[in-house]
Structure prediction request, 495 residues.
Amino acid sequence: WREAEAIAAQLSTVTESAEAQELPLIAVCGRPNVGKSTLFNRLTGSRRSIVGDEPGITRDRIYGEIEWAGRDARIVDTGGVIPDDEALIPSEIFRQAQVALEEADSIVMVVDGRTELASPDRELARLLLRGGKPVFLAVNKMDTQELLAGAENFRRLGFRNVLPISAEHGSGIGDLLDEVFASLPPEEVDEEPTEVMLTAEDEMAEDEDGPQPIRKLRTHGEYEQRETKIAIIGRPNVGKSTLLNALTGSKRAIVSPIAGTTRDAVDEVVERGGHSFRFVDTAGIRRKGKTKLMAEKLSVVMARKHLEAADVSLLVIDAVEGVTALDANIGGYAHESGRSVIIVVNKWDLMTTARTDGKPPADIKVYEQQVRDALKYLDYAPLLFISAAEGKNVESVFKKVELVARERRKRVTTGQMNRFLEKVDFQKASVPMAKRIRIYYMTQAAVAPPTFVLFTDKDVKMHFSFERFLTNQIRDNFGFIGSPIWFKIKARNKK
Ligand code: GDP
Ligand code: GDP
Prediction:
């Protein structure tokens, strides 16, 4: 075991950039087979660097980068070296805990929710809890609703924060990340919003919780993401699996799972032009329900699940049937999820020359307007007309995905934002006088989705029309095509 450690130490020549090393670090610990690497893969996608890879050693520590709610962090899977000898497990557990306690800002311990607690679990828990860092217990493999209650049994380990998750299915991950990220040290402030209302600044500083720290601004290029995760969502029979086949089809470059794993092969990845398009949970896209009602329910559940794992969603509509209540329902989830949306009107071949219902060919402009009217809240979503079955216009899906993926990660500097704000004529907003708020300044606090913090005079929720007006102004100036825009209010005078 010592020898293995020595080799491992040699292999740990971490090749991360200095910038990455400044990011807060989250460590994932747990005994073998509880699902650490599954969780790790889900959290990082392919953006990870394998530090050691030698026969006899699966890997040493694996680092990856993760972004949540607009903040970046590093994540380390400490469980890389897996001794086969049972007797060695406690020492390995000990080593993991030490790595985590020394380096990490926050620690996630993973247990298998479907098995009894083992003594290494208790041992590790004890060490971690004594360490004084924020610790979270992720009870994994809670794949179904029925299993969730069982997670409570693991409170016996002594953790205050116990979160049921399914690393394989992606459920519970958002809640886990919310908590873990909230425990990280505050971000550095390295740009003050100085452009507008300089006078307000001193007062702001005295404010109870003051202005939100503004995260480090980087140039757009660094945000260029090489992989985009795509969810294909929609009700039964709109053509989701046909579209998936058309998109991945024969041009599919990789269908293989991430090296060393065979189980998360449910994603399919298409590489083109230096960009990876990862279609999430493709097994789920192809799943068919038994009865019509069951299939419909399943389509909603799957949409929500797929959205959780995605950056961009393709909301597929059946051209012949138009937007139904169920489509609108699923579209609503997409909108609320903060993912970018592209509306894909499929089976357009049936609406053109040879319509089976004998009606004249549909007018694309009129049709688009109908879709827009039925899905008002998705006014930012590009709309495509395709025929998945005939492969028509399928190519444009890739281009649009790349566009909206870039747009959702776009960052406007505080300077640009304030110059913009000075130009906006808020008198034009059709909002009752009493509902108006004054914006002193505004800053983009997060990307994906773009999130703006408004420093205002009143601690009130923005009036719907005011929010709409502001959103439209931002879109006219900065685009953010395909992505919802989120706002947070920070009032100067608390009511
Ligand atoms: P590690 O040794 O802790 O890195 O564990 P792995 O990530 O290799 O997972 C061990 C096994 O548990 C694999 O067969 C996974 O497919 C399985 N697994 C991981 N997460 C889940 C989950 O959420 N649900 C279920 N049912 N199985 C899971
Ligand atoms: P899913 O349930 O959303 O995955 O839908 P499927 O991909 O299984 O498609 C449902 C039906 O619609 C199948 O009979 C497909 O052949 C058909 N279909 C899918 N795309 C098109 C299309 O672009 N044009 C036409 N005419 N039929 C299509």
